[in-house]
Structure formats: C-alpha cells, structure tokens
Amino acid sequence: MKKVKVKMSRMLETFGCEVVSDYIPQSQLRVFTRLGLGTRVLKVKKRKNGLTSSGAPNLCHDNCALLKKTFGGRHIKGYWIEPLMEGVPSLGTQMIWHSIWITPEGVAIDPTMTRPELDGEVSRDYSMFIPVAEVTDKLFVTARDFVIPHNPKEDGVLLTEGFDENYKREVVTIGELSQHRIYETGTPKTHNGIKEYNSSLGKGSYFTKPSTATNRVLNDKGFALAA
After folding, report:
1. Considering the entire predicted model, what is its pTM?
2. d(CA 179, CA 177)
3. What is the mean pLDDT of the chain?
4. What's the CA gap between 140 and 227, in Å, rounded?
5. CA 101, CA 225: separation in Å to the nearest integer?
6. What confidence tier does 178 reach under pLDDT thresholds 50, 70, 90?
7. Following CA atoms 28, 30, 34, 39 in sequence, which dihedral angle do they give, to the nearest 10 degrees?
C-alpha cells in the first residue's frame, strides 16, 4: 500500500455534539498540530437504554457498520481520547482509533460498550472524540493507536497496536512522526477492494440489549426476539 503523508484530514461537522475546545493539555498541542487533528473535541453521547446502548466491546467499527446497514445514517471514524490510567495522576492521553454512528436524524452516538461498562463496573455518559473521516465505498481509512505522555517533547510519543501489555510498542519523537504510517487513506485507484472491505465490516457485531420499540436484539445475522 502507498505510504501517505502524516497529516490527517479533519471533519468540521459537530453532529449535534457539544464541542470542547480546551480539552487537550497545552503540553500535548504540538502532537495534535503535527498530525493535523486540531483541538476541537466532541462529546459524543452514550445511551443508557435500548439496542444502541449495547454494542459489543472492542468491535466499534463493526458495530457502527452494522447500525448503518440496518438503520441508515453514517459511519464516522476518528480518535477516542481517554486518559491512560495507572494510578493517579494518569500517564498521559490514549488516542484510540474508534468509530461512532450518526443516526438518520443526524445525531452522533457511541454505541460501543467498553469491557468495564459491560461488566457494570463503570457508567459513562459520553466519549471524547475527534472525527477524521466517513466510511464510504470510495474511501479507505485506517490509523494507529498511540499514547501521548504529559511531556511529549521530552518523552516522545508511544505508538501502539492496541493497549494490551502483549502488543508491540514503539517510542518516537514528535519530529519522527512523519516517518511512520500513523494514518492511511486511499481511493479505489490506490487501494483495491475498498468496497468489499467496507462491506465486510459488521461481521461478528452484536448488541446485548433489545430495541425498546420491538424487543428484538441485533447481530450480524439480523434481528431476533430477546430472550
């Protein structure tokens, strides 16, 4: 695949979300500028009840693809921003490649549960999110997860392939970011099989709660009555 420039595209739409302009710590702004992400962060709502509050953990891209195929709307990829917690204070900021769903009415929601949410350990009202690109048959887009320490000028940026302790990690300086494939995008001319790849999204997805309107649950095979 063709290596692309480090700077990402940005979506300026807010999808009905509250915009937070001062969420990014001052010490980390250079990384966001270097990557072209900007500093406008959306507070994307997480529903408490019904089918769209209960997407399977770790399957955000598939969950949102399945909702789009089933109900319409839009599938948006970008970065979910979370403090990397290991005691207090946190170790820095996690940048997790993530998906949200835009309902047919134009409202953004994050339908995917985290494992602690599924287990009832925490309850979150929203996700902090920077939208990057919309999934379409004419666009391929993917990006790497990474961690920004509190002082990236001295400590660099930690590139990861997930946040499990067994995943590969690599520390690079801010200046070296352009030498790494953080973000990749393509068109049908540069990447074969975009339509097929995007069509395959949704496989394995499931929602644990039934629709409040129909009492049916949804998975990649379709609807079924709740048990």
Report:
1. 0.88
2. 5
3. 85
4. 38
5. 23
6. confident
7. 60
